Amino acid sequence: MKEETYRRPVAGDHPPNLSPDYKSTTGRAPAKPAIALPHTLSEITGPLLANERLDAHENDLTKQRMAEPLGERIIVQGRVLDQDGKPVPNTLVEIWQCNAAGRYHHPGDQHDAPLDPNFYGGGRARADAEGRYRFITIKPGAYPWKNHHNAWRPAHIHFSLFGPAFATRLITQMYFPNDPLLAYDPIYDSVPAGARQRLQASFEMNLTEPEWALGYRFDIVLRGRNATPME
Amino acid sequence: MTSHALTPSQTIGPFYWGTIVNACRADLAPAGVAGERIEVVLQLHDVQGAVVPDGLFEIWQANSHGRYNHPDDRRNLALDAGFEGYGRASTFTDGTSHFTTIKPGRVPWPHGGGVGGLQAPHINVSIFARGLLNRLATRLYFDGDPALSDDPVLKLVEPARRDTLIARRDPTGAWRLPIHLGGPNETVFFDI
After folding, report:
1. Number of domains within chain B
2. A156 belongs to the catalytic site
3. What is the pLDDT averaged over residues A97-124?
4. Shortest Cα distance from A32 to chain B (angstroms)?
5. Is the CB of residue A90 less than 8 Å away from at least one CB of chain B?
6. Has A6 been annotated as catalytic?
7. Burial of B139 from C-beta contacts in 10 A (0-12 / 13-18 / 19+)
8. With an 8 Å Cβ cutoff, are A96 and B20 in contact?
9. Cβ separation of B8 and A15 shorter than 8 Å?
10. Cα torsion for B46, B52, B56, B57, to the nearest 10°?
11. Domain with A126 in it: what CATH number?
12. Which chain B residues have a beta carbon less than 8 Å from that of A32?
């Protein structure tokens, strides 16, 4: 009998590897199906990075340089949960994003928009015992890319999560609610229609802080354990 | 039944380097960690065979005693101070990422309960890149290891494709494994 410690994604949860409207997938997507592995210790363990020390301002991207960056200050917070809604405690959350003008602090980004010397764009937070995380940042700008004529990426923040196991590793992107560019973005639209809205944060007035910053909630759901793991 | 829907995967994109914090952890084994010190070189190729200069490799492995540094590995085997077993490194312009680590020991199949056998020494590999909408997972095995012929995971792979998982020593002694995202030598990827 196969042992399945972690639930497997079902059709419609993730984008297909080959999504031709996103042109880079045609040169990089494997053609052969992946071989299903029973879950062994190699898959149910994974890096917890428990000894990784986080500096004071790693989750506040507006306080990492000499002065405040330009742009619209925002709060992005949420919980890391599993498919049963149970918190994933103490897991490391990494984010990266472009600045308010739509430019990454990266030598490969040649978009004709200004760099902001006060914005680096990378942050980390460790979720608490209830899976809660929180970042302070600025709203990233939209930017053009060369996928097709007049292609623009909607504003997004990249998220990287480990969860409890090698099997739960996830890199994704958070988008902003009701962005008109979402309908034209082949990366967002690579996710099946029933699932892609899970990548939109929600604007929440009760996370918004008066005279200071708009608040967005983005909960992240990682693979959960099967109810009766075979040991 | 599940009450919460999975968050879908998206590509890492081309611009993580320089903004993602601590993107490089290429030396897994500080001085004093037990085991045979090895160098591992992974090289990423696209479906045409061209090298991929903007990818990210992550590795996860047991220590030399075959113990994972994780609470779900409950076997009574030694943990090594300073050895977590996790590394990551972006690819250079030639598509390679270089790791210094120790050769992992054997871990059980399928679980730690004692039934079943042992897996051959292996390193678990994740691949991220622009154009990859999902994390790809594969394994690195070591050429010439006597346990290869009995490895239960390799037995799931048709014999003609097993070589795509087996690293070989290069002239410098490093263990080298090309990873092909497609084409005639497409690497075996695993659905984990």
Report:
1. 1
2. yes
3. 95
4. 8
5. no
6. no
7. buried
8. yes
9. yes
10. 60
11. 2.60.130.10
12. 186, 188-189
CA distance B20 to chain A (A): 5
Domain hosting A138: range is 1-7+82-231
Residue with the two structure tokens 């709203």 = A139
User: Which residue in chain A is spatially nearest to B115 when comparing CA positions?
Assistant: A231
Residue B102 lies in a domain: yes
**B-chain residues near A222 (CB < 8 A):** 6-7
- Domain count of chain A? 1
Q: Residue B144: CB partners within 8 Å, gap ≥ 6?
A: none
CB of A137 within 8 Å of a chain B CB? The answer is no
Q: Which pLDDT tens digit goes with each residue over A191-210?
A: 999 999 999 999 999 999 99
Find out whether the peptide bond into B110 is cis, omega within 30 degrees of 0. Answer: yes
- Write down the ipTM of this complex: 0.96
What pairs with residue B90 in β-bridges? B56
Q: What is the DSSP letter of B173?
A: S
The reply to whether B3 touches chain A by the CB within 8 Å rule is yes
Q: What is the pLDDT of residues A113-160, one digit of tens each?
A: 999 999 999 999 999 999 999 999 999 999 999 999 999 999 999 999
**CATH number for the domain including B49?**
2.60.130.10
Query: Is B24 within the bounds of a domain?
Result: no
Calpha distance A98→A103 (Å, rounded): 5
Task: Tell me the pLDDT tens digit for each residue of A76-94.
Answer: 999 999 999 999 999 999 9
